[in-house]
């Protein structure tokens, strides 16, 4: 194996033979390395034992490519800040719109090439140990990957922001910026800390791969590698390159989203049962896609389609099927049974709601049970009565807690040894 290749677990012999027997792929940019299948043919080492990873991730590396460049820091910081702001801003929507790091991954490509073409390539402090340049050469894939990592670190919502939001909106209390910042940073540091502690078990093993990352790796290769299309007998090139296919899909998806996202928001949920029976409570409970079970409702908004799992195109079939079965079991079996059999007075509350109610089904006044010191007023709580929630909301909470223990049980059962 060449010295510039990344060491990784050896791919299984069966899969290696399958790859060797496949047709030769198109050539690629030497800076990225040869195509994965060609690399496997040339070397018996370096591939991942996971077939999906081996077919997507190249095993070659060019250590001479500059990484910590001026444009990387500028574009990476900008992408992190913008995605953090936009995702938090859209998080307060009824149907939250999530802007993933893939958006930044696409957007920074022309910006990176633009900076590489217009920024001076002058070398400052030449001959000195502090020598540096703002433009070390063409925009490369390593800079692009690092910028995307920056963007990804800011793309996710900070979970503790729920606390800050709830205190200000529902309890009408003022939290100072410093206190809010400490709450947010504490939870984030805890998360990164636990990830670092368990890195050996959750990150480094070859089996711990994530399908979404393979989508991004494939996109990196499409944006940076050069492809040669085959030539027909008439001398014309046939087929589409990955770049051309990507651009066509990008334009089509943007043009499609204009309709449900801007021109006709009603396409978010088409509840035809509610249209047929506009005055029926039962019909709205069954057919409403926003306030009911959504039976028969059709959603053409991609944020509605992908809200329960992110992008279903990136998840493997078994994961998607598992989520669908669990969702159908809770939403269309357990929830209707508990509601129509009036379990725990379920009919007193909406069939589908995340609100807080009194025992009579009225909206619960949270401010009335909190005193001026932001403590629970026990006397007021006893006078108003205990909090009540819908059966659906109760099951949602229960499932969230069950997921924590089920993860531990799954590891013990399937990976105990």
UniProtKB/TrEMBL annotation:
Membrane association type: Multi-pass membrane protein
Name the record gives this protein: Oligopeptide transporter
Coiled coil: none
Transmembrane segments: 70-92, 145-167, 174-195, 245-263, 317-341, 392-414
UniProt KW keywords: Membrane, Peptide transport, Protein transport, Transmembrane, Transmembrane helix, Transport
Comp. bias regions, Polar residues: 23-47
Region feature (Disordered): 15-47
Single GO cellular component term: membrane
Biological processes annotated in GO: protein transport
Organism field: Papaver nudicaule (Iceland poppy)
Subcellular localization, as worded in the UniProt entry: Membrane
Family indicated by similarity: Belongs to the oligopeptide OPT transporter (TC 2.A.67.1) family.
Gene Ontology MF, one: oligopeptide transmembrane transporter activity
Pfam families: OPT (PF03169)
């Amino acid at each position: 194996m060449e010295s510039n290749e990344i060491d990784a677990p050896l791919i299984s012999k069966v899969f290696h033979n399958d790859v060797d027997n496949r047709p030769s792929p198109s050539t690629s940019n030497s800076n990225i390395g040869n195509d994965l299948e060609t690399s496997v043919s040339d070397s018996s080492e370096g591939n991942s034992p996971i077939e999906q990873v081996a077919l997507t991730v190249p095993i070659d590396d060019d250590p001479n490519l500059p990484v910590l460049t001026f444009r990387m820091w500028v574009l990476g910081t900008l992408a992190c800040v913008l995605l953090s702001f936009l995702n938090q801003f859209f998080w307060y929507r009824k149907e939250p719109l999530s802007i993933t790091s893939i958006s930044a991954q696409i957007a920074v490509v022309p910006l990176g090439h633009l900076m590489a073409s217009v920024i001076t390539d002058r070398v400052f402090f030449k001959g000195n140990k502090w020598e540096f340049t703002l433009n070390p050469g063409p925009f490369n894939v390593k800079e692009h990957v690092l910028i995307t990592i920056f963007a990804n670190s800011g793309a996710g919502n900070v979970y503790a922001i729920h606390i800050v939001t709830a205190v200000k909106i529902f309890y009408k209390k003022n939290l100072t910026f410093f206190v809010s910042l400490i709450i947010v940073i504490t939870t984030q540091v805890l998360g990164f800390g636990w990830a670092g502690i368990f890195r050996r078990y959750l990150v480094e093993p070859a089996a711990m791969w994530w399908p979404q990352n393979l989508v991004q790796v494939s996109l990196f290769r499409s944006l940076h590698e050069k492809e040669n299309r085959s030539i027909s007998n008439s001398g014309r090139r046939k087929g589409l390159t990955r770049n051309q296919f990507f651009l066509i899909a990008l334009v089509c998806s943007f043009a499609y989203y204009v309709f449900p996202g801007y021109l006709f928001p009603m396409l978010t949920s088409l509840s035809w049962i509610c249209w047929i029976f506009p005055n029926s409570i039962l019909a709205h409970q069954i057919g409403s896609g926003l306030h009911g079970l959504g039976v028969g409702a059709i959603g053409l908004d991609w944020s509605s389609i992908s809200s329960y799992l992110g992008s279903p195109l990136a998840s493997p079939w078994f994961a998607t099927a598992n989520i669908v079965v669990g969702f159908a079991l809770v939403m269309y079996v357990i929830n209707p049974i508990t509601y129509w059999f009036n379990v725990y007075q379920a009919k007193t509350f909406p069939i589908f709601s995340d609100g807080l109610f009194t025992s009579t089904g009225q909206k619960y006044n949270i401010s009335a049970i909190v005193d001026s010191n932001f403590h629970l007023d026990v006397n007021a709580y006893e006078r108003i009565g205990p909090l009540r929630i819908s059966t659906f909301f109760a099951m949602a909470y229960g499932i969230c807690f069950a997921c924590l223990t089920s993860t531990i049980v799954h590891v013990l059962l399937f990976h105990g040894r």
